[in-house]
């Protein structure tokens, strides 16, 4: 099932504040989309609006090309799972799963045998075939979460809306269940929208991320694209630790304010002026024999990366460096190469720079008018 949202705005009840502010989003049939962003960004509000649970709003929300208004819940083919999975404690797992079918009007309700068959099928699907007679209190958190998913799937929805469904689980179970969910999504041909705070979770499970902030969509893109070409500094920082360097563009070069950071060529067509450069700590490199910086190894680091403190003179930054640069640790007279930085002006990316392919000879840096090879 597809979802089309056009210019959606929602105000907080009895307030002029906008919970959603001119949101437009298109989710194609079969997509797995994650809504991410800080607390209060509007993720839950957007999800509930897609489900037709709340109103009123301005704009258009179409599910499979039709508005939900006036369509009874059971015709909408939408499954919902919330963080507090709220299974009925006095009902067995099987009765919980069957609930959505049991409450259908008589003429639409499958007969008892068909419901029992569907429940058995779903118990297999969630890999808990023996637990139909158990009660929720007898299950682990991860098992309960799978039952909640089975309950949402009982009426064969085409669209699955998940609001922080794994929030209460420990990290290991959380990782297992999200992989399982992704498999289920593919197997059943669902369209899934997942709200999560956790960008790692979103990156692992979803095809596309929608980053929200203050009721607006800041950027929507496949995960890799968000990291290579974040639209704003907020997106860059939301996705992981980032180092910030201020500077200026002059004649196609980025000239950093820190004297022990190397300038780099950004290509033509960029207006001169102030910019901010952001990059990941593991995207930096050290250049020996240039500048007056000092690199000091720190404890920690993983995956073949060592953590270092680099004293730049006016400030210090912590970077991650591949261990084969070990010869530089503890050396004076180093400079920092930040040629992989994304550049921003007025809080917006200079996209043509961020998306530029690596230039041949990357590593040739000009510093104080000279060109050196970086390590
Ligand atoms: N019933 C309500 N009345 C007034 N304001 C509300 C109501 N529900 C949500 N809001 C406000 O709308 C904004 C968006 O809230 P929402 O719950 O959608 O954010 P969220 O991104 O899902 O946050 P979280 O990650 O903390 O769940 C917030 O500023 C919140 O305070």
UniProtKB/TrEMBL annotation:
Gene Ontology molecular function terms on file: ATP binding; ATP hydrolysis activity
One Pfam family it belongs to: ABC_tran
Key word Protein biosynthesis present: no
Disordered: annotated segments: 354-375
GO terms for biological process, alphabetical: quaternary ammonium group transport
PROSITE patterns linked to this entry: ABC_TRANSPORTER_1, ABC_TRANSPORTER_2
Keywords from the UniProt entry: ATP-binding, Nucleotide-binding, Transport
Key word ATP-binding present: yes
InterPro entries registered for this protein in UniProt: AAA+_ATPase (IPR003593), ABC_SmlMolc_Importer (IPR050093), ABC_transporter-like_ATP-bd (IPR003439), ABC_transporter-like_CS (IPR017871), P-loop_NTPase (IPR027417)
All residue ranges annotated as the ABC transporter domain in the record: 3-239
Name of the protein in its database record: Sulfate transport system ATP-binding protein
Source species of the chain: Gluconacetobacter liquefaciens (Acetobacter liquefaciens)
